[in-house]
Amino acid sequence: MIKTTMKTEEVKAYERFCDVCGKPIPRGMACSVAKCEYCGKDLCKNCIGHETPETGDNRTVYCERCWTIGIDYRAKIAELETRTDLLYDEWIALCASK
């Protein structure tokens, strides 16, 4: 969440706060931005439930709540991905056989 504070009559300051614990999130490089992939909450480094390793400046992070909800779904998705890989292998084998 972003809060607006009037520093003077002419200057507004925007500060980002963690949507889970309410602590301020310091401004920094783009790679320091942590926003849950599913619910969109701004997260401080202490409130990240899971972070998927990525290259570059973009981060893939999840809050603890969303990561916990996904436990059963991730298992089902992995199972379907394995099944999909087997189907591709079967298709390729049929095409390779004369």
Which terms summarize this structure?
Herpes Virus-1, three-stranded antiparallel beta sheet
- Characterize the overall form: elongated
- Report the count of strand segments: 5
CATH topology of the domain at 2-69, by name, is Herpes Virus-1
- The CATH architecture of the domain at 2-69 would be 2-Layer Sandwich
Gist?
With 98 residues, this protein is of the alpha+beta class. 33% of the residues lie in helices and 22% in strands. The protein has helices spanning 64-69, 71-96; strands spanning 2-6, 12-17, 24-25, 48-52, 60-63.
Could you characterize the architecture of this molecule?
This protein has a domain at 2-69: Herpes Virus-1, CATH 3.30.40. The protein contains two helices and five strands. It has helices at residues 64-69, 71-96, and strands spanning 2-6, 12-17, 24-25, 48-52, 60-63. The strands form two sheets. Strands 1-2-3 form a three-stranded antiparallel β-sheet, with no helix packed on it. Strands 4-5 form a two-stranded antiparallel sheet. A hairpin with a 7-residue loop joins strand 4 and strand 5 (60-63). It is elongated, with a radius of gyration of 21 Å. The mean pLDDT is 89.
Please render the helix and strand layout as text.
Blueprint: E1 2-6, E2 12-17, E3 24-25, E4 48-52, E5 60-63, H1 64-69, H2 71-96
